[in-house]
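cron nightly-structures :: item 1 of 1
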Amino acid sequence: PIFLLGIAIAVWVGRIRYKNYGGDPEDISDVAVWAVPAGIVGGRIYHVITTPEKYFGENGTPIDALKIWEGGLGIWGAISLGAVAAYLYYRTHKTTLPFTYFLDSVAPGVLFAQAIGRVGNWFNVELFGSPSTLPWALSVPRFDRPAGYKEFESLHPTFLYELIWCFLLAVLIIKMPKWL
């Protein structure tokens, strides 16, 4: 899926930034072996907790909570559990730079990964906002429209707004002077 591309870019950006700080970029790759699976599990847990009706509601199917290939990852859960795993790695392994440099190195890559992940929302026709007549509004098929919006053909592409925001913020972080 598209989130794998985001992960690859996050690791790539993190390696470059970590090396620029004087660290061994292999530290980033080694941490990723711990942080990425933990992040995927955390993202899934967050998704299941924040949308329990799909799995535990009246028509829910609990076993579907394990079907990660059907989509559903929450970025806050992914960042939280991924960061815990990265911290544990740093506490138990020798690295060339302190954990704070790791965090600074991967921050823009995580934002790029989130931006790339939002492209998946376009393919899945999800994460759209209120009705819109703007030229960039998303035309949503009637069966994909949320309750209360069935009569509106086009909606705000909120995933696109988040994609732009994440991309711009990542670039800003990269361009910030080192002394800040």
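cron nightly-structures :: done
Strands lie at 138-139, 154-155.
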